[in-house]
Amino acid sequence: MDQIRLPLPERKGAVSVEEALAERRSRRKYTNKPLSLNELSQVLWSAQGITSDWGGRTAPSAGATYPIEVYTVVGNVENLNPGVYHYIPLAHSLALIADGDIRRQLSRAALGQEMVREAPVTLVIAAVYERTTARYGGRGIRYVYMEAGHIGENIYLQAESLNLATVAVGAFDDAGVKSVLGIKEEPLYLMPLGKKLGE
Fold first, then answer.
1. How many domains does the chain have?
2. What global pTM score does this model have?
3. Cβ distance 190 to 177 under 8 Å?
4. Is the pLDDT score of 64 beyond 70?
5. Where are any strands of DSSP class E within 25-79?
6. CATH code for the domain of 112
């Protein structure tokens, strides 16, 4: 499958961790301006980017089992066609899963929440539980949820540092999201992402 290489992520920003923590909020309204490919690249790297030679990532994972897969529903990103993309951490790239703007269908699966339809991008954090439960048994499910939380907060803080807006959405029809995206993994979060309204 062809992959789209993303711009290399920055390792140093203009906003401190403390400033990002102080300003972090759940924001459900976005401008209609597109995201840049650099912005999307940076946020995806914050979610699951590789940070060590052995494959360690930006978010901790129990036993380095990495049960989370990140999908990107793109509607309005500069130099990137609308579609569903799978983030490939090892290559810092996107693999196209399906063509076309499916934000309206995803919004319906998210119980009609408008921000999913209006945001330029929605990140979908999805889990393959067996990667972790194979090692830790039933308790591994807890570890998967913990990892998803780490990833969600990374996205929040990275968005804040880029003057972007996001919100963690947990209210959706699981089977509907899987059907719309055409994925087998279990969705845990939807995170719409866009430019802050009025800023």
1. 1
2. 0.96
3. yes
4. yes
5. 68-74
6. 3.40.109.10
